Amino acid sequence: MLLVPCPNCGPRNSADLRYGGESHARPDPATATPQQWRGYLYLRDNPAGWLRETWYCRSGCRRWFTLERNTATNEFRTPPMPGDKRGGKA
Amino acid sequence: MTMSRLGPQPTEVLDRSTKLRFRWNGKRFDGFEGDTIASALAAAGEHVFSRSMKYHRPRGILTADYWDPNLMVQVGDDPNVRAGNRLLEAGMDVRAQNVWPSLHRDIKAANSLFGRFLTAGFYYKTFMRPAWLWPTYERVLATFAPGGKIDLDTPHRYHDKRYTHPDVVVAGAGPAGIEAALAAAAAGARVLLVEHEHAVGGHLRYSSSDSDQAVLAELRAALDASEVEVLTNSTVTGRYEDNWLGIVQRNHPIAVERLIKARAKVLVAAPGLIERPYVFSGNDRPGVITSGAARRLINLWGVKPGERAVVFTANSEGDAAAADLDRVGVEIAAIIDGREGKRVSSAQGSSRALGAVVAGGNRIEADLLVVAAGWTAPTSLLNMAGDRPVHDPATARFFPSDPPGNVLATGGLAGDGTLDELRAHGAATGRLAAQRAAAVAHRLQAMTARARPVDGDEPAWAPDERTPLGRDPHPELYRSDTHGMVDFSEDVGSKDLVAAAHEGYDSVELAKRYTTSTMGPSQGKLETVNTVAAIAEARGETIAQVGTTVWRPPYAPLTLGALAGRVFEPVRVSSIHPWHEANGVSTIIAGQWMRPDHYGDPAAEVRNVRTNVGLIDVTPLGKLDLRGPDIPKLLNLLYTNKWSKLPVGKVRYGMMCAEDGVVLDDGVTGRLGEDHYLMTTTSSGAGGVWEWVENWLQTERPDWKVHVTPVTTAYVSINVAGPKARELVGRVTEGVDLSPDAFPYMEVRLATVAGVDGCFMWRIGFTGELSFEIHAPSGHGLHVWEALMDAGQDLGVGPFGLEGQRIMRLEKGHFIVGQDTDGLTLGPSTGLSPLIKLDKDDFAGMPELAWAADRSLPMIVAIQPDDPNVVPDEASQIVRGNTNEILGRITSARMSPTLGRSICLGQVEPELAAGGTKVTVLLTSGERVSATVMDHHAHFDPAGERLRG
Amino acid sequence: MTGIGRRLRRRPPKYSAAALAWRGMRGDYWPRVWRDTELKSSYDAVVVGGGVHGLATAYYLARNHGITNVAVVDKAYLGSGASGRNTAIVRANYLTPEGVAFYDRSLQLYNSMALDLNINVMMSERGHLTLAHNDSSLRTMNWRAEVNKLQGVNSSVIGPDEIKKIAPALDTSSHPRYPILGALYHPPGGIVRHDAVVWGYARAADYMGVEMHQKTEVLDILCEGGNGPDGKGPGGKVVGVRTNRGDISTPVVVNCTAGWAGLISAMAGVRLPITTHPLQAAVTEPVKVFLPTVVVSGSLHVYISQTDRGELVFGAAVDPVATYSIRGSLEFTEELAGHVLELMPGISRMRLLRQWSGLCDMTPDYSPVMGFTPVDGFLVDVGWGTYGFKAAPVSGEQMAEAVATGRTPKLIAPFALSRFDSGELVGEKGAASVGH
Predict the structure, then answer these.
(1) B828-838 pLDDT, tens per residue?
(2) Which of C273, C275, C329 sits opposite A1 (nearest CB)?
(3) Lower CB count within 10 Å: N or C terminus of chain B?
């Protein structure tokens, strides 16, 4: 089972979290064309490599956060934790 | 061959003072405490234990351990028991599997006569004509399914799993594994040592050398004195992501099998080596055994494996086996030395016993052939860690190539050497494992530094400076000059593999799939290398060029019972549930909840609500407590309608859509105070909506000040509905003026109900009646419910369940998200377009809903069959006339006790959505009936006078 | 390659009991099931992916349309991907009319496959039970049954007593956490030997001249005229394929991959609505046959069948986390075992023998993406989620027609890539997250 580095709770079994998928910017709903909006809804980069994605620590801190993971190896690249010099080593 | 019990051996594991009586195929046998099923039977002279899968050839002991493919037996209701591993118990009922009618007279053995036609994959090439006969052929083929029998009455004797977080897990307690465990523990690591066999020691256990036994005693004593936790008869079955390990413990005192889950910081793989059979004609005949089997039989269980033996040896283990045989009085007819290029060509004899061995053109009478032809490296755990083992022809086995840094190999997997060298390598591996585990531990702690700061800098990642083990040369011995069996459990011979390669199935994966070699219960432990070798030979390539199969978990099979453990899926009930149970409730499971469906007569419950007053327990209703100044903005963003001007004390209905415009959830939200709201969701949507709200707040609008607390189970929710609801609620409520003017429809009040403070109640109307929904602190839920029941006796109060509520909401035409809507139902299809405010700046799904407003969409409409007595089944299709063209479907249907006629909601194509349209409903019986689309969703009281009363 | 000839042949020897006996007597090897040839520099069409979809497409191109100058390329061996990793269940009891029509045609092709391809694919029409544990799934079963009946597909909803008769191992009492309230019974559903389908299509296509190239990895798709870099992207057209064995010029490339569909499409500048997830499966040790039908439970995310070899084959829902890594997980087997024992408590002593996983390309509406793309000559047959094997024959047939005629056949029109531009998705998502 994948060990997910929650920025608040530390490493947690992936079963403790909800996977939120590829993180992608929401277009401005006022100006988005159908193509842009449906690109946001449906199209994904789905790379075999580093991916920015969201997770929800549903059994812990209940925070949504973004991580980078290599989808080919499932290795996480943890961004440094804000205000925390010790973060980011994993 | 005749096996028999020897006198006591110095290394044996038997307690000869304890006799165990058991049954084998109905006959009584005796063994000793410490025997495996197989050793007890062998000692009693049994030499046929099973019949092979395809040809039903008699099979005897091959390896005499867990992996022996010929020793699968049925023990009581337990199929496929490894008789080479399972310890004998008194009273066991052991039976041979895959035999008919009996082990010794098996009619399907006639298959071997047709062996040349039953080549690998023969079934792909035949049984095609006549096509109508194939089902019959299939049934016959299915009778060849090997294995034991399932008794469907076997209880699921499950037991809890265990979780552990050791620093180092050592898989395999041979001398190297034990040393690794000891060294890691000495360096301060928490160590779990897992041994597949019944005792630690690996090959030392069945060595008759005094010095080996002395080392074993020393290692055991050291383990006893250490902090290392030792599990025997347990196997690390899989290495999963981030060193998550599955371990099956087969000797738990209570559990049939226990699954242990370990998050190891470092895994040491020290499984030793598995002895590989040699391929030659007759190599599966009873009486042909591996050198390890010979030594185990003699030294562990005091079983003399035969009277006159030929030993084919290419290594020191084979030499040791020959010495053991000689020592216990087995006549050594010949020693054929594989290192000198000599080969065994065939094993001959009757169908059930060895008679002679042919080697180098000579025929040697013998009842036992002991083979020591080399090793298979069980690289399984390394494979699962992503390593691709490499074949070394000089040693005739695979070696690890580049496993990740938190998986280390030692022992036979890593190389060869003297016992001292192996121990030293093990110890060095243990030290390295402990160092690396400390680094991992430090890093894990650093990741939770907010909770508990970590001391010091992270230890450096220790480099691997172990002195590598050597590699003893070993002749490449896979197949002799004859063909023989490769996969004993699947009955696949070398001939089959060569034929498959010639036919084009010439990569290892294709050949494996085509012939099924390595696919059976052995899972490649004995046959992988010989399989690859046969293909390589056919292709004229090396084993390294052909490559090997991937070892997949589990390394050793484990029971479904162990994997399942205790199924932890509790059912939730409200605190009122005891009352429901005491009052004849009929429950229904809805998601995680067990809810009252009805109390005997749902129609009567409906009539009572419509004429008197009823109570329903709606606790599962999702409830989110919202606090903060930005709640109106949040509600505007999540709901399709407007929320900026909702005054304190008011509640409003809202519909949520996803970003693709599909209806997500609905419910009412009330403003309890200036910055305090209560949001309700559907019961099934409670969890999802909560995450949805958090997602918006945390990722899209992190600057908004709203705090969300789920309070679904903090409150019980009781809906009091019916014309006498005000009267009833008034009798138990303090501090609230319930009069229609003071507390009108769609408002909320804080109240004390039945003496319970902190309740709040709102006036809404899912049932279409005057109703007060009371949310009371959960601990007082039962009290409030009972107080309402007591207070309303004279009013005719009674409970009603989900079914009654569903009938009444259908009478009122309220749709249910997920029942009347589906995964593609866009907001406007619900008929609630007026609630979709496209002039807001933004809300979830707004662009799609804006575009949808211009499209003609399927619509949810109320429908009444023209025959009032016809209640279509839900999901009945609406079709065009007598054609099969689908124009919609009935999503909800009930007989209305109030109207005395059938009523429905349905989804229809836009062309049918106008009131008064006649539609054709195809009943599930096949009958087509006429129905009419109604003007309003509400079949009853469309003006809503009752609920506003 | 040495040792085994590379001989070309005109006509493959027919498989039959008599031929088997004859060769058995003589001890002859059967000739190669498909040839092993050099890669040519030009083909009329290149099919990427040597699984059931790619091979079926090539086969029908040759058989139905006479287009035989076709190469099927695969980076590993034929059937190495999802074709050999699925649980081999076939059925036509879908939810939407377009889905039912499509899969019904597939089932027809499966039923005649043994004779069409002259290989016994062991189509076992053993019936398929989809269990309902609550009233909402029972309603969905009814919905599927009604749509099926209207399309002439044999499906009906049956109650616990009848279920018990069909599959006595199931616990139909009212005690379980997930009581069995009813089931959608689909007698024509069953299982097929998946590898035999791969080999059968390859052998038959080979006979008609199609070339199968294993260990041939597509590195790039060569385009010109498109609005993206290197002439890729909308408005452009395909001119060739770059492989690890050299460049091929071709006007048509059909992407029949699973797991790598997005990566291959990106090579032509086409973006897909796909995320890639592993789907895990497992098999037990064999026991004597006791489960005569396929059993599926959507609520419990499990499907079960017993092979003629006696093994129980289990599958589940796709893993929630998108990844290209196909290492199995322990929690999959734990959850699976728990759910299986919920349905069949009597088999707790059966042992799990092996687990594996394959990659599934999931689309937002649980329906495939088929047909033409904004790049001329680049066609896709992708996004199969967990349904690919069932659809292989009909997909091949329809994709071949699309290639040969240049028009989208009616059966696959609902699955066009353009539906994600217009927002008109297919309604299969409503059926269940586990659809086997």
Answers:
(1) 999 999 999 99
(2) C329
(3) C
